[in-house]
């Protein structure tokens, strides 16, 4: 009888101990969430010491555009930081070597979410190729940034209520682009122009929302000179 009582008491003690442990686990859970929240906040910014797919995408873009010559390894080291600083300097951004909101936008990335950006999902392959043809015809002698800028103007017009709401509508709007008037729109674009079209579609806008661009040396319209200049890239002035 004594053994039964002793066994019962031990069982009750074990149940009580397990209950305390469970209560402790429930109470401790919120404290474990803090590092996860902090990590999520840090993922919105890439800086020296960061690693991962977003860093790799930054390196790939900067290498393609000639800012970076190191390994595409997803490790944000000193060479990556210097490349980011160079890119920031060339694009009128704060030169701090940190990929924050504005630098993500200038790179055509979605802000640290999977890195490659997906804003081009609404466009077809035909749209991409037509935009590349326009870029090649209008700006093949310009820098890569200058080519992306021309593509961005086309896309800004698509979004504007003052222009047609399709890429083909914008490009073939009467007297909109010299390349259409003189037939250069029918030239076959090179890979650089195709890449520029994709980057513009992914959100990189070196013009900061411009709807017009022109070469001040060859422009003949007095009206275009009345537009507010935002930025000059190569031989083209971009305006709103």
Folded structure, characterized:
The chain has 240 residues and is mainly alpha-helical. The protein has two domains: 53-117, PGBD-like superfamily/PGBD (Muramoyl-pentapeptide Carboxypeptidase, domain 1, Orthogonal Bundle), CATH 1.10.101; 120-239, Arc Repressor Mutant, subunit A (Orthogonal Bundle). It is 52% helix and 5% strand. The protein contains nine helices and three strands, in the order H-H-H-H-H-H-H-H-H-E-E-E. A hairpin with a 2-residue loop joins strand 2 (229-233) and strand 3 (236-239). Helix 5 (125-139) packs across helix 9. The longest helix has 41 residues, at 2-42. The radius of gyration is 27 Å and the shape is globular. The chain starts with a helix and ends with a strand.
Strand order of the largest sheet: 1-3-2
Indicate the proportion of strand residues. Answer: 5-15%
State the CATH topology of the largest domain.
Answer: Arc Repressor Mutant, subunit A
| Series of secondary-structure elements, N-terminal to C-terminal | HHHHHHHHHEEE
Shape: globular
Q: Roughly how many Å apart are the termini?
A: 95 Å
Q: What is the overall number of helices? A: 9
CATH architecture title of the largest domain: Orthogonal Bundle
Mean pLDDT: 80
As a whole number of angstroms, the C-alpha radius of gyration is 27 Å
Largest sheet: 3 strands, antiparallel
Structural class determined from secondary elements: mainly alpha
Please indicate the count of domains: 2
The residue ranges in which pLDDT falls below 50 over 5 or more consecutive positions are: 14-43, 112-121
Can you tell me the CATH class of the largest domain?
Mainly Alpha
Helix content: 40-55%
How many β-strand stretches? 3
Please identify the oligomeric state: single chain
Provide the CATH superfamily of the largest domain: Cell wall hydrolase SleB, domain 1
